[in-house]
Amino acid sequence: MISAFAGGLLELGKRPLLVVPALLAAVLNLIVMLLALDTFQAAVFGIAILGEVPDAPLIEAPFHFLVNNAAETATMAIAALASLATASLLLFAYSRMLTAKKASLKDGFLFALSRLGAALGLSVFALVTLFLYGVAAFLLLMASVSFELTGLVAFLALLAWLAFGAYVYTKLVFTPLFISIEGLNVKKALAESWKWSSGRFIPLVIFLFLLWAATGIIVGFGDIVGAAVGTALGGAVDPDLVAFIAFLLGFLAASAYFNIVFTKFFVETRQ
After folding, report:
1. What CA–CA distance (Å, rounded) separates 221 from 21?
2. b/e string for 97-119 if b means 16 or more Cβ within 10 A?
3. What is the pTM of this model?
């Protein structure tokens, strides 16, 4: 585990161009977000501010919303699907560049594109699963605040449901690497990830926690550097611009580092 974290820093130091895939993914996600922003804002405003919720039983409300707002739902689903697919393709590219001999950025991009079908299939599975999981969590949340007698039971059930979601996420989070590195299809990759994580669940939880913490530190370090540089330059350059550039660089470095360490840990653990 330690070698994976250290190896991530060494890879970025030796091959700084490894941030390029993260940059392209960030640009794609930004484009998707901007295209779907109005739809997301309208949906959130309508539900949270105007209270435009379907006049239906609680358990049916999410599905009524989907049917009655088909265009908005389709836009949000496509945006979410694009974001999930981009994340899978990004990991595919990094896994190729880190495991194949003398693999270049071009090799990584071409390999990721060759696995576009698998990325879309995995993204559809994740989107549907997240929707159903979110609906169940929403119902438990509403039950915990709406009904006095059963509120405590519903709240405890919500906590258990959230813990179950974290458990399933940990069991399946390495699925993309089984697709890209071992060449499995989506169904077999999901099954293999579930099987492979058995007996090492706690180490995986620790690894994921440390990895998320490390990437957060990198982003935070970028903010600190940006603030320091902005102060040092005084009024010569807009401090907000310096801070934004520093944040962007920190975010890209963190994204690249996450995928590099994630891949290295998997390869080392599978050996």
Report:
1. 21
2. bbeeeebebeebbebbeebeebb
3. 0.82
H or E, element range at 201: helix 201-233
The encoded tokens of residue 55 equal 């006049």
Q: What is the mean pLDDT of the chain?
A: 82
Backbone angles phi, psi at 214, to 5 degrees: -65, -40
Q: What is the rounded distance in angstroms from the CA atom of residue 192 to the CA atom of residue 97?
A: 23
pLDDT for 194 = 93
The span from the CA of 181 to the CA of 118, in Å, is 13
Above pLDDT 90, what percent of the chain? 34
> For residue 271, what are the contacts with CB-CB under 8 A and spacing of at least 6?
none
Dihedral angle, C-alpha 75, 78, 173, 142, nearest 10 °: 20
Cβ–Cβ under 8 Å, residues 55 and 12: no
- pLDDT for 54 equals 53
